[in-house]
Amino acid sequence: MASIGQIIFGSMIFLIVVISGLIIFILAIAFSVSQGTVESRSPSTVGNLAEDVVLDCRFLSNSGNAQFSDVSITWLKDSLSGVVYEYKKKAAQLQGQNAQFQNRVQLFSDAISMGNASLLLRNVKLEDEGVYRCSVNAPKVSGTTSVNLRVAAFSAPTFNLESNGSLSAQANKWFPRPEVSWLSQSGQLLNSTQIINNTAGIMNQVFSVLEQPVKEDDTYTFLIQNRLVKAVSEATVSANRVTGRTYFIFSSASTKVPSLQLLFTVIFVLSANQ
Fold this sequence. Notes:
Layout (H helix, E strand, L loop, with lengths): L3 H31 L2 E3 L4 E5 L4 E3 L2 E3 L11 E6 L7 E4 L2 E2 L12 E3 L11 E3 L8 E9 L2 E12 L5 E4 L5 E8 L4 E5 L5 E2 L1 E8 L3 E8 L8 E7 L3 E10 L2 E10 L8 H14 L2
Parallel strand pairs: 2-11
Antiparallel strand pairs: 1-4, 3-9, 5-6, 5-10, 6-7, 8-9, 10-11, 12-13, 13-17, 14-15, 14-18, 16-17, 18-19, 19-20
C-alpha cells in the first residue's frame, strides 16, 4: 500500500504534467493567434484563355486591418521549378523566376500594405493551369494558402432574329467543347439546331437556332456549358429586336454539373431577376 508521501509525490507529478500541458496549449494558441491569417477568397479560379486573371491572396493580423510595412510574398506553382513571383524589401526579387512567367505577372503594389498579396497573371495560357501557393511573412502574420487555377475559353453570345421569325445565337470562343440548349420562359426545353466548329486549333465557335418562331415580349434562355463554365443568357424579343444579357457560372469541381442541377440554377437566376 502506497504511503502518504508517495501519494503526495504522485499527485505533484500529475499536477506538474497537467500544468505543463496547459502552458504548452496556451502558448500554442498565442503563437497561432500572433501569426494572423493568410487566405484566398477564390481558392478555385477559372481563367479565360488569352485574357488576364487575378489569383486572390489576402493576409490579416489578429489586431485587424493594420498597415504592413515589412512584407515578404512568394508565389510558387506546384511541380514547377523556380518562383512565379517573389517580393521582398519593398521590391520584386525575380532572379529565380521561372521563364514561363517572365513579364506576365505582378502584384498590386499599392495594396500590399493593406494585406493584399494577390497576383495578376496576364494573357492566360493552357500551361498556366495548376495549383499556385501564396506564402506571406509580415509582422504578426505568417502562412500559406493555395489557389487552383483551371483554364477555359468562354464568351457571351450575340442574338439575332432570323427572317423566318426564329432566334439565333452565336458565341465565338469556347473551350473545352461545350453543349448548348434553349429554354422557354416557363423553363421548357426547346428544339433547336446547333453547329459547333473548331477554330484556331482548340477554340470552338458555337452557332444555334431555335426551330420555331419566337413570340414578342417573351424571354428565352440560351445555355452554353462545359465542365468548367456555364453561360446563362437571357434573350428578350421586343419590337423586332433582341436584347440579351449573360451570367457566367464557374464550376468549383472538375466534373460537369448534372442537367437537373443546372436547370435549378437557371430557374433561380431567372427568378432572382424578375
